[in-house]
Prior knowledge:
By secondary structure, this protein is mostly helical. 76% of the residues lie in helices and 4% in strands.
Amino acid sequence: MAENLYPLIQLHYLDQQIAQLDNRIAVMPVQIQDLDRKLERYNREVQDRQSLIAANQKKRKDLEGDIALIEQKRSRYKEQLDTVKTNKEYTGLQHEIETVNGAIRQVEDQILVQMEEAEHLKMDLEKAQKEKSREEKVINEEKKVLQDQMDTLQKEADGLKARRQGWIDQIPIELLEIYERTARHRKGVAMAEARDAMCQVCQMRIRPQLFQEIKRNDTIITCESCSRILFFLAPGEKEKLQLQAQSS
């Protein structure tokens, strides 16, 4: 293999490995955000139940305030009983007192309903808190695994990016410009292996004479279909070059 294409092929494989790592890393923050949103749903469940309990307590307090007002009215009626002068007035006050007593009983019934509801709300809150505690533990463990994986992959990617410069230094500037320009226009993939007289990226058939020229790996030849730089590797050579790209 001629020296002018050898570093370029190494750079190609290294760039593909870096791109794969970057793609894997890119989805992990989204996965962590999904876990955060899942945990937030459990937090909202707890908060919603706490809000219902607070509303229940306020309702009970308001009803107790209503009873206090009604009892004041009843006290005034009872005080007036000592001052009435006729049976009719006395009977009228007794009727008002009975009406007030009925109103008090109605409010007390409402308070009992609120108290029963409070018991159910308390149980619902305890259940939601337990679910949140359980899921929070699981979610935090999943987030830690993702973060550790992301850190490991990022460290690996950074190492490959550091090695990348070593290969760039071995490539003539004009060849590197062709490679980078092609990569920009071909979704980051500037080169394609030619095997069995076929481009392995776009599957376009390569003319026999042109394929023989490509197999020499001594000049830039681009695919007539996808415009990527074509190169040839003998059986087993691809794996060897990929390992060299990572370790050099």
